[in-house]
Amino acid sequence: MSIPKVGTSILGAVCVAVFLAIPAPAAAQKGSTFVVTFDRSGTPGVDAAGNPTGAFVNPCTNEFVDVFGSSAITISQVLDTKGNIKTTVNTSTKGTGSGWVVDPIDPTLKLFTGATYGFSETQQFFVKVGVGEAFESDFFDKLAMKGARSTDNWVIRARFRLKISETGEVLVNLVRLNDGDMCKG
Predict the structure, then answer these.
(1) What span, in angstroms and rounded, lies between the C-alpha atoms of 129 and 136?
(2) pTM for the full predicted model
(3) What φ, ψ does residue 100 adopt, rounded to 5°?
(4) How large is the C-alpha radius of gyration of the chain?
(5) Among 156, 151, 149, which residue's Cα sits nearest to residue 66?
(6) Cα(135)–Cα(67) distance, rounded to whole angstroms?
(7) What confidence tens digit (pLDDT) does each residue in 132-143 have?
(8) Secondary element (H or E) of residue 18
(9) How many other CB atoms are there within 10 angstroms of residue 84's CB atom?
């Protein structure tokens, strides 16, 4: 038995109507990229909220290290067969650092030690959230600071917050960069 052309057209129209009834946030967020830059340089300190500011202290060498970088966070969303929105998060974090000590004669001046550091990290994970549900979670990115010698290598942890609203909108922000407390040398 064959389906008449009119029946095929009606079936096609019904399929399009059902597809359009599926909430759009999954398609609207497909391929969004957030770039989060960070600058941890200058005299170490703490802000009003208790978060560390300024240069890190390399736990291997005890020198200060100014760190500059950025994280490109790409979000893609798809609606799965069970009606959940699967959000995939890809993070690529890159940056550099340069070591310095305080001038013993004039403590307001930096003396650069010549030590340089680089890091390049990637990670991927996904979460499933029901359509119309909100989601919030923190995730961490380990930044392996690589110096000229293996004894200079150490780790910083970046803490990000992922929020997905009831409408499927995604927001990612950097919560804090934790001081380096792990010497890998």
Answers:
(1) 10
(2) 0.76
(3) -155, 160
(4) 24
(5) 156
(6) 31
(7) 899 999 999 889
(8) helix 5-21
(9) 16
